Amino acid sequence: MRPFSRSLEAAAVGLHYAWRTQPHLRFEAGVALAAVTLALLLGTGLVAVLLASTLVLVAELLNTAIEALVDLVTPEHRPLAAAAKDAAAGAVLVAAAFAVAVGLAALGPALWSRLSAWVAA
To answer: Checking CA distances to 98, which of 45, 47, 70, 90 falls within 20 to 30 Å?
Structure first.
């Protein structure tokens, strides 16, 4: 069994690889940061936004791992390889749609209230 520090190092290498090679991960992290900042500023929905954002980032990391593994196993186009990649991408899409719904439900009313008060002033 390897030491915990080596496990953390391997995880950090994987995160660095994904961050470096996956523009969608960087975009999703930026959106997550914006949503968390908005939740803090509005004083509402922080836990829901954190959970939904984490789900999207985890799904994107798993998608990256599946794509890399499929490319390693078979560099040529195969229907099952394409299905695996497409299903992984679909998981990210479902997670992102869920996160948008959570964001609207958790932040929408407070944001609407603040914007309405600002426009009325």
So the answer is: 70
SS3 of 73-93:
HCCCCCHHHHHHHHHHHHHHH
Contact 95, 56 (CB under 8 A): yes
Distances (CA, A) of 72 to 57, 77, 81, 87: 23, 12, 11, 17
- Prediction pTM value: 0.91
Residue 120: band (very low, low, confident or very high) from pLDDT cuts 50, 70, 90: confident
Q: Where are the domains of the chain?
A: 23-120
Q: For residues 3 and 25, give the distance between their C-alpha atoms in angstroms, rounded to a whole number.
A: 28
Question: Which DSSP state fits 44?
Answer: S
Candidate list 9, 60, 67, 76, residue with the active-site label = 60
76 is catalytic: no
In sequence order, which ranges of 3-45 are alpha helices (DSSP H)?
4-21, 23-42
- Tell which CATH architecture fits domain 23-120: Orthogonal Bundle (1.10)
